[in-house]
Amino acid sequence: MTAITIDLNGVRIADDVEPRQSLADFLRERCGLTATHLGCEHGACGACTVVVDGKATRSCLSLAVMSDGRVVLTLEGLRNDQIMDILRRQFHECHALQCGFCTPGMLIMARDILQRHQSPDANTVRHELSGQICRCTGYANIVKAVVAAGKDLAAAQAHALAGALAEAEALIQAEVQARVDDQVRAQEDAPPKPGTE
Amino acid sequence: MADHPPADGWIGASLLRKEDARHLLGHGMFVADIRMPGLQDIAFVRSQMAHANVRQIVKPPEAAASVFTLADLGPIAILEAGPELAAHRHSPYPPLADGRVRYAGQTIAACMAPTRAEAEDLADRVTAELEELPAVVDCVAAMLPDSPRLFEHWPDNAFITGNVTEGDPPALQAAPVRLRRKFRMNRQATVSLECRGVLAYWDHRNDELTVHLSTQGGHVMRIAIAQSLGLPEHKVRVIAPDVGGGFGGKNRIMPEDIAVCAIAMKVGHPVRWIEDRREHLIASVHARDHTYDLTISADRDGTLLGVEGDVYIDAGAYSLWPTGSFMEASMASRNLTGPYRIRHLKLNTFTVATNKAPMGPYRGVARPGACFAIERLVDEVARELGREPFDLRRQNIVTAAELPYRTAAGMRLDTGDYVQALDTARDMIDLPAIRKRQEVGESDGRAIGVGFAFYTEQSGHGTVEWVKRKSRVVPGYESANARMLPDGSVIIHVGVQNHGQGHETTLSQIAAHELSIDPSRIAIKYGDTATAPFGFGTFASRSIVFSGGAVARASRMLIDKLKRIGAHLMQTDPANVRIEGGEVHGPSGSVGFAEIAYAANVRQEHLPAGMDPLLDVTATYEPTETGGVFAYGTHAAVVAVDPDTGTLEILDYVVTEDCGTMINPLIVDGQVQGGIAQGIGTALYEEIPYDEIGQPLATTFGDYMVPCAPEIPTVRMAHIVTPAQATEYGVKGLGEGGAIAPPAVLANAVADAFRKIGASFNETPLTPRRVSEAVARARRARDDAA
Amino acid sequence: MKPASFDYVRPKTVAEASVALGRKGVNTAAIAGGQSLIPMLNLRVAFADLLVDLSRLDDLKVVTRSPDSIWIGALTTHAAIEDGKVPDLFNGLLKRVAGQISYRAVRNHGTIGGSVALADPAADWPCCLIALGATVRVVGRNGVRVQPVSEFVRGQYETTLSAGDIVMGFDVPTPSVPTRWGFSKVARKSGAFAQSIAIATALGRSGRVNVVLGAAGPKPRALRTVAEELEGGKSGDELRPAIEADLAQVAPGADDYQKRMHTATVLRAIRDMRTQ
Ligand SMILES: Cc1cc2nc3c(=O)[nH]c(=O)nc-3n(C[C@H](O)[C@H](O)[C@H](O)COP(=O)(O)OP(=O)(O)OC[C@H]3O[C@@H](n4cnc5c(N)ncnc54)[C@H](O)[C@@H]3O)c2cc1C
Ligand code: FES
Ligand code: FES
To answer: Does the domain at residues A1-79 carry the CATH identifier 3.40.1190.20?
Structure first.
């Protein structure tokens, strides 16, 4: 047994694990986080994809011991994530899941894609989704959902940016105004210079 | 994907799925997600050899109690599987090997430990002494008199042989065009992304064996478990939680299921077996593996006359309960005329035992092979006659005026417009434009080809059809139990099993339509034999027809009672009331379902005198015509092929299909696209080859290619809607259709790309090697001739 | 599908790692990204008593540029190269190769060192590094050695590594003139290992040409006759006899289809190189 500490979905977990235990089994069997699925256990299906230190990772091809000290995010930990919210909505609206077994891995990978590509087109999404097997949907709606989510995200970011800019401008305006006011006040308050009268 | 006009009611509405939320949050509950105190894992010792006598099984002494052989499981009844036909030979398939193993991967012993890893350690320490026997791996050679036998007491290796003779086949000898072709559709796996899994324990409080099973039909599995273990059925509860795809592969009782249940009864704590991908590929349900040797006859004018020849099904080592794989041969041969006016048929069928994993159903069952064979033959005749294959199809296809039409093999094609489906596909793919493009040629040296294929999909077939097939289980009906709760919300229990099809959504739409309430007020429940009425599960494109019908009927029974109570409350005659918006309306006012339901459940003093309380009804349903209703469609594809590497790109893929009335077009499109993806897998990627000593050569996803997003195009779809006459709302089943035509259409497209040199593409999957070799062969033949 | 038991250490220095890996009587294995080793352990086709985790050795993560070469530390991931975190002085070849290996989640962890150390005949990096004339630096119990990758890789899953040896990284000579290259691969599906992989490189318009073919024999090999003919000005179909001659050397067991396929990838790589 080897002692490890992992920041898992924002919670510090300390545990002793068998070196051979995969990160996937650690998440599922020790931590009870079963959103992460196993579809092949040899790296070819993507059902087990999680985020380790910000990177999409096959949890079946990582050992729990190797994740010691890392920050791990699973779908359970992305409940309040802006990109995931958008993806979930688009997956639902585009009918991008049937049995749902591939879905957690797909979502994690889709989020990774949207973090690396601004508003990706369908070809980019297809290429980037390679290695994520979905046996039910035939992928078309998954691709559609990710593309749509990319657009939504860009719009949301543009909106947020515009909002932030407006806010900043308002702040600056206020600041400038305040300074002007200050100056005016300073001038008004300033004792008359001797000899000017 | 297609554009759909908005619907004005729940039938035909693209309602977003109720199933999605839990999966999108990672809250799906699959068998492997269930946690139980004291749970232990099972790993199996499997045969390394294709065919051997088991001499001895040596358990590690320190862990002998955790290793189970057949003898340790206690008395197990081996169920007879396959059709109820005297001619079908019995192939007893024990949960763990008796004295013989008949395929590489067969279970020999079960090892139990607190974790799967430790169970595998234990399995590695068990020695199975095997005495190798000659393996039978080629199903045609297996029928030769000197072939080794799988079962000594059988006179040959056939599970069953048969023949179909219609019309006047001897007359075909004189036909002006006779072409003989051989086709192979190779063996593959079903590959649900969730592998199989079973978790069992004895529930002391309920005094029953509880079995969580990743299955397509819990009630039918319960029959097998109870019979195998000698338990009365009321002491077995089968729960199918979320099921991560099935496609046929989870519709048979498998040896591991029985072994795990038997062990659970011995050990007194929960045990589970979670199939891993290697086990799935070597020892789960295998599929297809058809070999055809066919001669098609035609007139010079292109009229197709008849098909003769042999159909071989390599069914593997055992029949799987209940039905085995005999349907492959009968369905393949009965579908071999396709939608064409072919009146003469003479087919010999052989369902052969070999030393390979047992065969079971897989999306499309038999028809992908039959469609591949007949659609390739049509193209070959066209080429022989110098005709456009599309035109030959159109010339021979059954027209709308001829429907309903009895095919030579006795299938009753019911409704639709096949010519319209063909023409629409031709227009969508723009055949003339492709022909022009071909004349110009491609700058990158690739060859472009266009292919068409037509399929029919028998769906919603009931008693008549299954009895004809001599099925051990006759899934001739479905059932629904509908309850209106005191607040007017509704729970409907059904006997089918959702594993991706969206029944929670579509069946609630049907109930919503009948009950005039919002689908959000209706919950569809399934997957637990303790609560669901008896039903057969989800397979054979039957759920929307059967379960949809049962839900409609149960809803109407509720309505009937709601009306009677409502009328009573409004003091009017039931004949004077109607239902709208979740209320019963009378001549002067209305009363809501909630009020009625409250009375029926909780305040029965408000009920009419003598009326039984409760709004709780159970209905069964079978369509009026039980030979099945036929969905159909045309697929067309354009491919670009590199003759040297044999690699292939799908440039365009279109479908026109008719599945009758669509309850939820969004889900229909999803089923079509998903089915086509699997069909493309069969056509181009997926294969489990065996070597000459019976070793499977694709045991991981490193060798077994499952197409991913870059391999699957977004299919362009058009829907034709011809409501079926025999079903509720005119629905037809459609789950399988997408998977039927892709091998045919893609092989036809590749053949079209090389039609000038006469290359033939008659074996799936069309791997780069097969494609390139076929081109090279044709080029050599042409050069030799020149 | 779970691995058999093993012990695990995570040494802090390369020296410690080398000692751990060289322990007598113990079946040890280095693990870097684990993207090849763990599947093999899971499938129980590879076994180890002791896994030595190299993945946090900073000495193996160095990427530096010198006037005439670039050093790529063994732990550099495919994804890092794909994302341009390694200066690509070869006109984008490294990025191109990296970006199509397997799948992104695998590329995030799989390393160039692990890929070459494993020496899968169908892998991408050995082929690419041989084409670029790279050398590998190995640290072991007997000190440091530097070897051309073409010699380091001896055959199918076979290298000159012995117990206690660690691949530190690769020195890739950088050209004084812009490199032109072509890359062509046949695989059964996206991200799958190659059935055939060809990389052609040329220094400038008329400089030295290198054509390497992978997945054809036990290891990627340079096609010397083809290179000579190319330098001599031949092109397109004129090269077929030379390819045939080289294939007889580097892929003696190839059947007709494989010859056709390899010929096609070689010709395509050359064509792409020429059009750059
Ligand atoms: C589904 C899938 C598809 C793939 N497809 C491709 C593909 O198309 N092309 C391709 O090239 N690769 C492919 N790979 C392999 C991938 O590129 C691996 O990342 C790579 O081969 C090994 O790198 P690693 O760091 O993961 O090595 P590991 O798995 O950690 O190690 C591999 C081997 O190298 C040894 N090793 C590692 N680092 C060192 C070192 N510094 N010194 C000494 N020995 C060392 C290990 O002991 C082990 O024997 C695929 C992998 C998967 C899972
Ligand atoms: S389970 Fe990890 S990639 Fe399939
Ligand atoms: S929805 Fe079933 S595998 Fe993707």
So the answer is: no
What are the chain A neighbours of B17 within 8 Å (beta carbons)?
A: 92, 95, 97
Cβ of residue A102 lying under 6 Å from some atom of ligand 3: yes
Q: For domain C7-53, which architecture applies?
A: 2-Layer Sandwich (3.30)
Which residue ranges in chain A fall short of pLDDT 50?
193-197
pLDDT band at C264 (very low <50, low <70, confident <90, very high): very high
Ligand closest to CA C168: 1
Give SS3 for A99. coil
Please name the helix (run of DSSP H) or strand (run of DSSP E) that holds residue B676, with its range, or none.
Answer: helix B665-680
Question: Which of C51, C55, C8 is closest to C27 using CA atoms?
Answer: C51
Domain ranges within chain C, ordered by starting residue: 7-53, 58-173, 179-274
| Percentage of chain C exceeding pLDDT 90 | 94
Q: Measure CB to CB from residue A101 to each of B30, B247, B677 and give the nearest one.
A: B30
**Furthest-apart CA atoms within chain A: distance in Å:** 92
Close Cβ partners of C189 (under 8 Å, ≥ 6 residues apart): B685, B705, B707, B708, B710, B711
Residue listed under structure tokens 């991408």? C124
Q: Say if C7-53 and C58-173 have the same CATH topology.
A: no
Residue type, B589: G
Ligand nearest to the CA of B192: 3
The pTM score is 0.96
Question: Which of A40, A94, A99 has the most ligand 3 atoms within 8 A of CB, as the residue to mutate?
Answer: A99
- The domain C179-274 belongs to what CATH superfamily? CO dehydrogenase flavoprotein, C-terminal domain (3.30.390.50)
Size of interface A-C (CB pairs under 8 A): 87
Delimit the domains of chain A by residue range: 1-79, 80-190
Measured distance between the N- and C-terminal CA atoms of chain A, rounded to whole angstroms: 90
Is the reported ipTM for this assembly greater than 0.95?
yes
Three-state DSSP class for residue A178:
helix
Q: Determine the Cα–Cα distance for residues B92 and A44; give it in Å rounded to an integer.
A: 36
CA–CA distance, A127 with A133 (Å, rounded to integer): 13
CA distance B773 to chain C (A): 6
Pocket flag, ligand 3, residue A99 (CB < 6 Å): yes
**Cα–Cα distance between B206 and B227 in angstroms, integer?**
20
Burial category of A71 from C-beta neighbours within 10 Å (exposed 0-12, middle 13-18, buried 19 and up): middle
* Terminal C-alpha separation, chain B: 47
Kindly state the tokens that stand for B572.
């009017």
**Residue ranges in chain B modelled with pLDDT below 50:** none
- For B355, phi and psi rounded to 5 degrees? -85, 65
Closest CA to B383 of B753, B755, B763: B755
Ligand 3 center to A136 CA (angstroms): 4
SS in 3 state form for B592-644?
Answer: EHHHHHHHHHCCHHHCCCCCCCCCEEEEEECCCCCCCEEEEEEEEEEEEECCC
Tokens of residue B600, six digits: 């029926």
The C-alpha R_g of chain C, in whole angstroms, comes to 19
Give CATH for domain A80-190: 1.10.150.120
> By three-state DSSP, how is residue B5 classified?
coil
**What per-residue confidence (pLDDT) applies to A113?**
98
Q: What is the enclosing helix (H) or strand (E) of C168?
A: strand C166-173
DSSP state at residue B84 = S
Burial B392-427 (b: 16+ CB within 10 A, else e): bbbbbbbeeeebebebbbebbbbbbbbbbbbebbbe
Q: Do C5 and A18 touch (CB under 8 A)?
A: yes
Mean pLDDT of C79-89: 94
Fold of C58-173: 3.30.465
B298 phi/psi in degrees, rounded to 5 = -150, 160
Q: Taking the CB of residue B467, how many other CB atoms lie within 10 A of it?
A: 13
Q: Give the whole-angstrom CA distance, residue B456 versus residue B331.
A: 12
